[in-house]
Amino acid sequence: MAKKAKEETLNLDAILFKCRDILRQAKNSGSFFEKRDMMLTLVFLRFIGEKYEDGIVNLRNTLIEQGLNPDDPEIQKAFFDDATFADGTFDLPKESRWSTIINTPAPQLNVSLDTALRSIAETNPQLKGCFVEGTFTQRNLGANDMKKIVDEINKISHKTFGEEKDLIGRVYEYFLKEFAVNATKEEGEFYTPHDVVQLIATVIEPFDGTLYDPCCGSGGMFIQSTALVKAKQGDISRINVYGQEKEAATYRLAKMNLALRGISHNLGSESDSSFTHDLHKGLYFDYIMANPPFNLKGWWDENLRNDARWTDYGVPPESNANYAWILHMLSHLKPLDGVAGFLLANGALGDTDALEIRKQLIKNDKVEAIIILPRELFITTDISVTFWILNQNKKGGKYHGRELRNRENEILFMDLRTWTENPVKGEQKKKVLLSEDQITRVSDIYHQWQAIGTDGRDFAAPELYRSVGIEEIERNNWTLIPSKYIEFIDHDLEIDYPKEMARIQQEMKDLMKREKESQKMLEDAFKGIGYGIE
Q1: Three-state DSSP class for 271?
Q2: How many other β-carbons are positioned within 10 Å of the β-carbon of residue 267?
Q3: 526 pLDDT band (50/70/90 cuts)?
Q4: Phi-psi region for residue 296, left (φ > 0), alpha (ψ -120 to 50) or beta?
Q5: Which whole-number Å values give the CA distances from 474 to 266, 407, 489, in the listed order?
Q6: Parallel, antiparallel, or unpaired: how do β-strands 265-266 and 385-391 relate?
Q7: Residue 279: how many CB atoms within 10 A of its CB?
Q8: Is the dihedral angle over the CA atoms 208, 212, 217, 221 positive or is it negative?
Q9: What is the predicted pLDDT for the residue at 353?
């Protein structure tokens, strides 16, 4: 009887690896970045095409429920020729549909793909500028190679991998990981893991109003935040997102990603640096969420020396952009009640080059919380990073249905570096994640500290968190390193050394006894067969 073939388990990484392997061997596949952009564009076409197909199925079912025949030519003309979808799904011309692409003969695929992109951009203004004209015909990948890749991409489906995931972002993360898995630099492109975004969003609660990210990458921060908004309140129309991205390809990807999700967005008219060309200058936002490139070098431009963003704090160090990011974000927070949650490398907590800026931030009562995260949260770097919270209103009042106390001249410190008990399997390097329970615990601690009835002078748990007054921070020369303030117990002092030494000595005696017994058994065995042991 023949063995039953094993059912193939679809795995996103396995599909992408196969595509990458095809591209590696193919002629004219281009640089790493060109391969990545080609793959992301194909994934976009697959996703937008699948959403269209789902939309048509839902529309047909709705018409049937209303007693109409969706196959009637008049009904087809009225409802399908220029379809409108309530959930933001894009109506696609026939040449742009995935069903057309997947059935195109291999020799015609490159032309067909570029035609699909051009038609999408012409019929959907929101997607204008998302694609490079001639992406596939200029690269002119071999017909068979392109067909193999399209067939692999066809396996990627929301039905398979889950509607709730940021799948385009996940593909983006894959290529970052493959490019930078052995990197040791603390700068460059990063995709923020879902659990980290969930932590930031759960803590600062960007549930309505305006949300800004000055270095938005592929848009994953927005997508995952709005997913949390939908889970909490069910209406993403209550929040408007604004962002900026320097890298042109990533900017296009973000526009694709947000449009695909039906998220209203303003990423500016072009890709450019938030420092040298602020596309949202003069705008103030309710919330800011960001994961800037850690310790970014090469950001400085001499024209920035007298920039208004540094006016009250001083010029940030030119050596890296950590404090430039802080001051840039602060300049965009609503003056009375804006809240920002962002990540920075740990060096910013006690950087002597930025001491005066940090001192002024603390004295102006902008810093609300400092939370050190575990190492290994990111695929592309293993350094421990800090989650900063800035708040323009520490005086108290109502906030999202909660009554907050006055927290002026206090900062909450947390240290989560020991929270490494949730390893992620199947990665090429060690990686951990924060569980739902851990995220909830951090949020509960923070919100309890904010709440009326809490005494900030006595809010602490050894080795985890502590509320600290500005006077103590001043005595510590304005450092924001949590270990300077949180109590860490010397567990060596808890050891009963006489008892421990007695235990070790007894274990040594038992070991020696067992070795002697084993030696004797060996000697007896050899004697039994006529051999002695010298």
Answers
A1: coil
A2: 23
A3: low
A4: beta
A5: 41, 17, 24
A6: unpaired
A7: 19
A8: negative
A9: 94
- Dihedral Cα 305, 310, 312, 316, nearest 10 deg: -90
- Measured CA to CA, the distance from residue 207 to residue 228 in angstroms comes to 8
CA 227, 233, 235, 237 dihedral sign is negative
Q: Is 401 left (phi over 0), alpha (psi -120 to 50) or beta?
A: left
> From CA 314, how far away is CA 298, in angstroms rounded?
19
Non-local CB neighbours of 357 within 8 Å, separated by 6+ positions: 313, 314, 316, 323, 326, 327
> What pLDDT is attached to residue 301?
93
| Other CB atoms within 10 A of residue 239 CB | 21
Q: How many residues does the chain have?
A: 534
Q: Is the pLDDT of residue 179 over 60?
A: no
**Is 0.85 surpassed by the pTM of this model?**
no
What is the rounded radius of gyration, in angstroms, for the C-alpha atoms of the chain?
A: 29
Q: In the numeric block, which tokens belong to residue 481?
A: 């390193």
- Classify residue 103 by its DSSP letter: T
Please, which residues bridge with residue 404 across strands?
397, 451
Residue 327 CA neighbour count, 13 Å, CB half: 23
Burial profile 301-330: b = 16 or more Cβ within 10 angstroms, e = fewer: eeebeebebbeebebbbbebbbbbbbbbbb
Convert the pLDDT of each residue in 458-501 to its tens digit.
Answer: 999 999 999 999 999 999 999 999 999 998 865 444 455 566 56
Residue pair 380/291 in contact by the 8 Å Cβ criterion: no
